[in-house]
Amino acid sequence: MSHLLIVEDDDLLRDALCAQLTQAGHMVTPASDGESAQSLLVSSRFDGVLLDLGLPKVSGMEVLCWLRKRLPALPVLILTARDGVDDRVQGLNAGADDYLTKPFSMAELQARLGAMLRRARLPAFGGSLELATEGTRRLRVDAKVPQAWLGDESLELTQREWALLSLLVSHAGQVISREDVLLAWQCEPGEGTGAGVGSNALEVYIHRLRRKLADSGLTIRNVRGLGYMLESTAL
Ligand code: CA
Question: 215: domain range?
Fold first, then answer.
């Protein structure tokens, strides 16, 4: 469950957003102007913000700039008017994570919001890492190259295998869900249910990675109903 701040001055839209997102399992706090949004952001902890740009007292753009200086990692989705192309560009430049143009469907909002919250929960892996194991060959990954090695030997990986491996490695010992993998593969929400990336395809990638990681002392475990977890004999 995420705690969301909903900043929107249109009463009808704000109430609808709150009702839908509460029903989707989130905890929501509404604000109807920029000033009250700021004081809520100071007094409470949020996992994400839905921010309308046209707001009374303090504008959404001002709130966004103010917010980025204080809480740089807090995910923000801005709501912009249909013809507000400048707003959208300005908002993204000011550090919004995503935007929705009004009018939008609740389904689209939930998909975008879900993806944004997952990205925030699983920060992109950008460093290098060597996993300590009791295996005969240690796995080392470097996201800057990007490349992975098993002992002295470099691993041949496709782009999707690389994305899957770096996700598992950077969250070793934690469960990675199917949705997390699809996000890492930059699939659109819902795409995974189609023919493109079915669960069989994901199983195939997992199987290939397991073979490539033989002798590494690492295992990719199926966690039934939840996803996959990379485990090391030495973790
Ligand atoms: Ca407005």
Answer: 127-232
Q: From ligand 1's centre to the CA of 19, what distance in Å? A: 18
Outline where the chain has alpha helix (H): 11-23, 34-43, 60-70, 85-93, 106-121, 159-170, 178-184, 199-212
- Same domain membership, residue 35 and residue 96: yes
Q: Please identify which residue in the block is written with the tokens 């939840």.
A: 226
DSSP-assigned beta bridge partners for residue 28: 4
Distance of CA 53 from the midpoint of ligand 1 (Å): 6
Tens digit of each residue's pLDDT (9 = 90 or more) over 173-220: 888 888 888 877 766 444 444 445 666 788 899 999 999 998 788 899
Tokens of 141: 């990954």
| Contact (CB, 8 A) for 189 and 114 | yes
- Residue 11 sits in the same domain as residue 115: yes
Dist. CA 114 → ligand 1 center (Å): 23
Which of 68, 91, 121 is the endpoint of a domain?
A: 121
Q: Does 157 lie in the same domain as 73?
A: no
Distance (Å, rounded) from C-alpha 65 to C-alpha 153?
47
Average pLDDT, the chain: 86
